[in-house]
């Protein structure tokens, strides 16, 4: 099992907190890692170091699929900024959510080529900064509008075009648990797993399907199984609990941190 | 292109009609095929023949995943009845929606073994009745509660354990459009495509994600591309428009039939 010393709390799980408060929460609850989003990060790198926390991921770069060259250039500029931020934070990986169909187009192959081309442009930038990119496949229900990379195998095939220290994949249980090829694809991801995120698949899906995620154990995912696959593939990083859920956001942050820690300890500690 | 002479209207698209009224609607709008659900079918076979329609599918058998032997036996009994009904209707295929996780279990591999075992039990029944089973992969967002078979490749691997005239696969654009392996899997499905269903992926998903489907052209799916793949794999059956959508159910059935026909003609006629 992966153990509490490799637990990380993604900031999105306690979205109503400032980064500074999320850092304090992790320290208070002895959660050694934190996953950050690119909002209000000024001064955060110093605060993280002062707190002795480790940044398991920065979310996110990506959204590479655009209909015109100006928008693609703007996306690259934004991704360069994200790389700089990831370097400052010494994050294990900059997570890439690749983007869905190109606006006005139903051509999935085009979207996927555009994603591959954009990552190829970003790789030298990331290498110069010492940042590892992490391609995250999203659940196929987000294929049209958020991420045309829908399976771990697809993310892995894309990552493998580049050096392993420059580009890896991010395994998020919520997005990949259903895939009958998951075990095979995790097994061939040795040396390529740049991040591991956990939350549960709960039903019914809410009106906004982005927010339908649950605490570990409240849903249908076998976390022991997937974690063992990830560990067997040699992953040595953090297990980051990232739960996008409006009810959990409304709960007291201390209660959420306690739940995250105890569920993790029960299932994976 | 596939052409209007191979258009079929699935009854679920006009769910508020009786089977008899759905048959009349197809005749009136010169839609030569119909897909049926197992509700109120008494007398339907004779009415179908009198109307000169062809039954492209009967929906559905399946739901094979149960925690106890009694429930599994009941499911087999129900599936035997579905085979009998499909034979009476001379349906091209009896669609199988396989069932999700076994109640109380997070073991996807167990669910998939149970599905394979149940289909193996059903195959001789179907062969005796001259009915072809069609394994339908459902979108991964239905994996937990409706169908653990989430990709065409998975359905195909399962179908291939049995004779091609006994077990095929059903390609439903809504469920498979996102899959980067779709073209490869359709190509290896030569002789195995037992049914082809169409509706569009529209956003946002509604509260009940079963009902988030749209008229052809209202969403993100490239129907020309997928239809060409299916035809290139030698499929000679009907293209069945099946749209589960509460707003479309509330529309006048004639209007719906006209929309189905004209969208199909524009995109695929």
Description:
2 copies of one chain form a homodimer. Chain A has 269 residues and is an alpha/beta fold. Chain A contains 10 helices and 10 strands. In chain A, β1 (7-10), α1 and β2 form a beta-alpha-beta unit. Chain A is globular.
Strand content of chain A: 15-25%
Q: Supply the number of helical segments of chain A.
A: 10
The class by helix and strand makeup of chain A works out as alpha/beta
User: Could you give a short account of the major beta sheet of chain A?
Assistant: 8 strands, parallel, barrel
What's the multimeric state?
homodimer
Helix percent of chain A reads 40-55%
* Main sheet: strand order of chain A: 1-2-3-4-5-6-7-10
Q: What is the terminal-to-terminal distance of chain A?
A: 6 Å
- Shape verdict of chain A: globular
- Hey, which two chains have the biggest interface? A-B, 31 and 31 residues
The low-confidence runs of chain A, each spanning 5 or more residues with pLDDT under 50, are none
Overall average pLDDT of chain A: 97
The H-and-E topology of chain A, N to C, reads as EHEHEHEHEHEHHEEEHEHH
Tell me the total number of β-strands of chain A. 10
CA radius of gyration of chain A is 17 Å
Helix and strand arrangement:
The structure is a homodimer of 269-residue chains.
Chain A (H helix, E strand, L loop, with lengths): L6 E4 L8 H10 L4 E5 L6 H8 L2 E9 L6 H21 L4 E4 L10 H22 L3 E3 L16 H8 L7 E6 H4 L5 H6 L5 E6 L1 E2 L11 E2 L8 H10 L6 E3 L4 H5 L2 H16 L1
Parallel strand pairs in A: 1-2, 1-10, 2-3, 3-4, 4-5, 5-6, 6-7, 7-10
Antiparallel strand pairs in A: 8-9
């Amino acid at each position: 099992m992966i153990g509490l010393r490799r637990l990380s709390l993604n900031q999105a799980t306690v979205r109503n907190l400032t980064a500074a408060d999320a850092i304090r929460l992790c320290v208070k609850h002895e959660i050694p890692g934190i996953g950050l989003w690119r909002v209000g990060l000024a001064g955060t790198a110093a605060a993280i170091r002062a707190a002795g926390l480790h940044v398991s991921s920065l979310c996110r770069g990506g959204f590479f699929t655009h209909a015109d060259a100006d928008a693609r250039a703007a996306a690259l500029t934004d991704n360069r900024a994200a790389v700089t931020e990831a370097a400052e934070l010494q994050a294990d990986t900059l997570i890439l959510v690749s983007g869905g169909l190109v606006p006005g187009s139903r051509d999935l192959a085009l979207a996927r080529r555009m994603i591959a081309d954009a990552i190829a442009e970003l790789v030298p930038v990331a290498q110069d900064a010492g940042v590892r990119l992490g391609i995250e496949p999203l659940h196929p229900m987000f294929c049209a509008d958020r991420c045309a990379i829908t399976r771990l195998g697809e993310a892995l095939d894309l990552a493998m075009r580049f050096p392993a220290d420059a580009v890896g994949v991010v395994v998020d249980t919520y997005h990949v648990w259903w895939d009958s090829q998951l075990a095979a694809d995790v097994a061939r991801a040795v040396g390529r797993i740049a991040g591991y995120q956990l939350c549960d698949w709960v039903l019914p899906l809410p009106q906004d399907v982005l927010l339908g995620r649950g605490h570990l154990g409240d849903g249908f995912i076998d976390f022991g199984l997937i974690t063992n696959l990830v560990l067997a593939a040699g992953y040595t990083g953090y297990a980051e609990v990232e739960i996008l859920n409006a009810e959990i956001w409304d709960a007291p942050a201390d209660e959420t941190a306690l739940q995250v820690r105890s569920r993790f300890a029960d299932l994976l500690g």
